[in-house]
Amino acid sequence: MDSLIAASARALAAGDALGALKRVALRGDPPALALRGIAMAQLGEHARARELLRLAARGFGAHEELSRARCVVAEAEVALAMRDFSAAPRALSAAIATLEAHADHANALQARLVSTRQLLLLGRLDEAAAALALIDTQGLPPALAAVAALAAAELALRSLSMEAARNALAHAHHAAERARVPALLAEVAEAHTALERPAARRISAGKEQLLRLDDVAALLGSGALVVDACRRAIGTGTGADADAGPAAWQSLARRPILFSLARTLAEAWPGGADRESLIASAFNMQAPDETHRARLRVEIGRLRALAAGFARIEATPRGFVLKPHGERPVAVLTPPIDGDQASLLALLSDGAAWSTSALALALGASQRTVQRALADLEAVGRARSIGKARTCRWLAPPLAGYTTILLLPAALAMA
């Protein structure tokens, strides 16, 4: 390795992308192309970075499989920053195998972290936890240790394991300070602020209260019957008393009518909800007739069957009332922002530019559904597109003042 390549690599390791470029900007050999690509990625020029890394990978000969594998890992990290999940995972898996065969454990761990972070973005928390458990963080360079701890912190926050999240953030802060990389320190600081911002609202017995993530975790573990409007589910956590029983959750994400009925009944608790209010919320009808009342009875019957494990739904002269088992309190957990596109906005607000295909994959929706939702958001100025056709990406301004963790895909595990 010549002196300019070595100096450029040291500059990149310290986070000095411009300093690295100054040393190799005019060179076109594969090592220089790879370093230029990584520097451009640090500067946010992801499309150009990807192009340079691909050129570098093609430039390395058949006897330089280790260098090609490193380029594959770097390109995978750029693709993650671009929110491009179209690449086959086999290429990254083959690169990991090559790196481990050559005892390049640091880059192999970097590749595993890229894969884990992609799983977190897509809301596949169980897979991310399994992948993270395979990563040995002992003896890692400080920058990699910080990234690993940040991934562990995000997984804990998304699972509402608050003590584990704080421990992981403490490790991330210590590692980021040793690495002296400003971007890592800023990411750790931003993760810390998420703990202090409001994450949801609680509505119970006609009163409303802002909750932080700690408060949400406490509510879900209190044994109360919770209608969760963030993840569209109904259920109970594990209470402190012996009779509370294990946690039980029933997802209603794909049953909007039943969820609307459950939310209306929960917001009316301890009283009942009249039939007109239930019909208006579930069917969006302001002047119901007998057919709507008959349909309401059918849907209430379905909700009664789904909620039988933790509540009864009893008829009253005017409507229906929710009666939780064991004298549990009832609470509605509502998101900090309202609207059908709340989860979409939460993804877009992370500062990255998303493609519609990546958004559809993360939300578990069709690409056409996501396109319609993005058009609605663009019409009211809450999102904007950049690029055209295949290069089109979507952005939204940061949602300041509160955290959107509960709106991200699979933020709460349902049993």
Give an overview of the whole structure.
The chain is of the alpha+beta class and 415 residues long. The protein folds into three domains: 3-196, Serine Threonine Protein Phosphatase 5, Tetratricopeptide repeat; 201-334, Orthogonal Bundle (Arc Repressor Mutant, subunit A); 342-407, Arc Repressor Mutant, subunit A (Orthogonal Bundle). 55% of the residues lie in helices and 11% in strands. The chain has helices spanning 3-13, 17-24, 30-42, 46-59, 65-81, 89-101, 105-121, 125-133, 142-158, 162-179, 182-196, 213-220, 256-268, 275-283, 290-306, 342-348, 356-363, 367-379; strands at residues 200-204, 207-211, 225-228, 233-236, 248-251, 273-274, 311-315, 319-324, 330-334, 384-386, 393-395. The strands form three sheets. It has a six-stranded mixed sheet with strand order 2-1-9-3-4-5. Strands 6-8-7 form a three-stranded antiparallel sheet. A hairpin with a 2-residue loop joins strand 1 (200-204) and strand 2 (207-211). Helix 5 packs parallel to helix 7, helix 10 runs antiparallel to helix 11 and helix 17 packs across helix 18. The protein is elongated and about 85 Å long. The N and C termini lie far apart (54 Å). The model is unreliable at 240-246 (pLDDT under 50).
